[in-house]
Structures are given as C-alpha cells and as structure tokens.
Design goal:
mainly alpha; 2 domains; 19 helices; 0% strand
Amino acid sequence: MLFTSFLFVVFFLAVLLVVCCIRTRTYQHLFLLAASLYFFWASSHFIIVLLLIAVIVSYYSGAMIHRSSDPRHRKIILGVAAALLLGILGYFKYYNFGISAANTTLFLLFNVKDPLLYLNIILPIGISFYTFQALSYPLDIYRHNMYPAESLQEYALYVTYFPQLVAGPIVRAIEFLPQLKKKVVITPENLRSGLTFMAWGFFKKLAIADNLAPVVNATFSNPVGAPSAVIMFATFLFGIQIFCDFSGYTDIAIGAARMMDFQLPINFDRPYLSRSPTEFWHKWHITLSRFVRDFLYIPLGGNRKGVLRTHFNLIVTWLACGLWHGASWNFVAWGGYHGVLLSAHKLISSGKNGEEPGVSRVSARVWIVISLLVTQYFVFLGWLIFRVGNLEHLKYCLYKFVIFDFNVTPGQQIFGIGVLCVVLGLFVISLHPGSFRILWNTLTFDHIGYLNRVQLKYWALFVLGIVIAIIILGPNATPQFIYFQF
C-alpha cells in the first residue's frame, strides 16, 4: 500500500478515527497492531510470515538474554537470533547475488559457465528495515541498554508499526517502547504538526521526485555516448530525486506517527549543506548511520585500536552499509567509496581542532563555501555509483563525470554559466558577514517548526497551497518510493 495512493489516505483516516474512539490503551494498541499487519498484508500477502518470524525470534531471544546471567549463554542466544534474522535477510536478498559471484569466479578459474542454479526469489518489501529494527532489540538488551518489552503484543506493535515499517526510519525499541506506556491522545496540536510533515513529504515525493524520475531514467537507461554535461546534470537531478523521494517518505511517516501521538526520529537534516563526508552521514539517513555505528563500527573496535584499525573499521562498516542497500556490485562500490571518503576525511582532519589561529572570519566563511561545494561534488559522484547498476555504463559515466569533455550545446552553455554565476555569487556573499548570515539562516530555517507556530489561517493556506501544487505538478502515475527496494 503506497503512501501516495488513495487507498492509504482512506486507510489512515479510518485508523485515526477508530483510535480516537477507543478509550483504553490496551485496545488502542491492539487495533494499531491489527491495522499495521493489515497494511503489510495489503502489500505483501503471505510474505507477512517473514515479518512475524522476525518479531517472534527477536522478542523471545531478548527475553532469554535478559533472564540469563551467564555471559556465554547470553552470547550464544544473541548469536543464534542474529544468525536466524540475518540468514533470512541473506537468503531473500543476497542468494542470487552470491550465486552470480560464485558462477563468475568458477567461469574465470575453470571456464565453467553457470554451474550453480539461480532461484526465482522475490525480494520482500521492507525486509532490510524491519530486520535491522528487530535485530537491534536483543542487541540493546544484551548490552544492558534496556529492559524487555512488557508483552509480545507491545513488542509486535513496535516492529510492525505501519508508518515506518517498510522504509524506516529505523527506530530503536529503547525509543519507541516507552511511548507505549501511555494512552494515545489525538490532539489538535498533534494533528497540525503531523499534517504539516505529511503535506511537505507528499510535495517532495509527488511534485519533485516523481517529475525528476523520467529525466533521470531516460539518461541512465543507456548513458553511453552522452557528454559530460548530460551525465553531470542527470546525476545532480538524481541526487535531488533520491533526497526528495526518501526524505519525503520519512516526513510522511513521521507526520502520520505524530498525528497518533508517537514520535519517530528525524532521518534527514539538510544533508546537502554538509561541509564534510562525516557531517553528511550525520545528516543523511541518520538512523541507518547510527545503527551501523553502534552495532558494527564500534563492535569492530571503532577508533579505539589505533589509526590503521580505525580506517579499516570505517571501510568495512561502509562496505556492509553499501551491501545492505542492495545485492549489486555498484552498491558495494558505493559503500566502499564512502568508507574511503570518510577514512580520507578523518586522515586529513586529524589533529585539527576548530579554527586555526590567524585565520580571519572572511577566510573562515570562504572556507565554508569551498568545503560545502567540494563535499557535494564527492557526494554526487557517489550518487552516480549508486544509480548506475550496469558496470560498463558506470565506468563510462564516472569517466565523463571526472574528466569533463566540454562537449556542450548552446543551451547547456547557458545553464553552465548560470551555475558558475551561482558559485561565484556564493563566494561574493561570503565576503560580507551580514549577507552570509542571512543566506545561511535562510537555508537552515526550521520551516516546519515555524508553520506549526503561525496562526491557523496562515497554516491552512500553506496546506491548501501544497494540495494545489501537488494537483498541478503531480504526475498521473507515481512510482513506488526508491527505498522500497532496499
């Protein structure tokens, strides 16, 4: 059931109405659990069994870990639970990828073509997200970060809660379970705040991302022969598309939850204003970055075992993160690319603490602009790796992105001059502190918070304007959210 479908609107309004009518917390939660399971069933049917297995395995393993005082016994239980959960994820998501890699290796070594058979496996929707969410529960209990849920019903609602079920944000039990201690109270403030998030999310998805998708797809379906200007422009559009698509979904999820008095964590914080690769991953898909940091990077040793081990841990962590996104070599390359990028940034920035003595405020502002532009160049280069799955096409696109061929049409020249003017304008603005402050405050302005504080009539005009914009700009057919495939 797509958030952008009319069926979801009817479903969500019905859920809100029924929850509002139910007077007791227990029955509210039972209804929300049933509604969440129906939401998943409507999209996946019998594959809901995998979701239920994830719930049962993680819940009972968490309970057994909590009851045991034997460190070895606790570790065995955690290992078995992780093996089951990751084994299911690995089978459905990576089996054919592993067979492909094995067949390629056997062909290169022994000239044997496809000795291992592929299976017709359908990737279950949202499996990466709810598997990570379920896995975090016994891990947090094992680390003594939390106590188990009071009941299976309460825990099942945490894992299956429909706004964040299929594409995040990845919510930790320690964040969500305490919210189930109170009765759901639907207030005018929650309705207004939630609808603001949802309206903005729908606009980003329908009016921006879905209109960019055909242009991006047309370019990257067969990019060989396209000049550098086209490749770079399509990569830029894809960066905007994936941001508006994924953050749009997250805004809808956060808004839907907030209308029902639940708080989901923010997943994006203006990532394209980042001034370093490290800052970018503090602002993009925040809940995934936090998950791989807490449950992979730190257990590997983090930065506690020397310089070489730190860089090794970073690269391994982001290789795994890339593979989590999809069973394809371009995703592995994308993860490794960001691991190397983070490692290089850590190496370059080590030993630098704050502003260096003798650096003027003007120089600091100019450096902000330079670091922002350089960071985004490398981020968008990463999006090219992420988007182009065909390795031959990817090699061509990377070459054209890095080595500009200056093969441009008059229209592209005008666009390029416009981009150059914007860049030069940023440097000019950075020379004047007042102008720079106004620009930066405008870019970082909390528009959602502001809309929730303005008078009701102005807020209603905002919602009406969003609805009209979506009706005018929204395409006739909307594709599913990009991250549904992950």
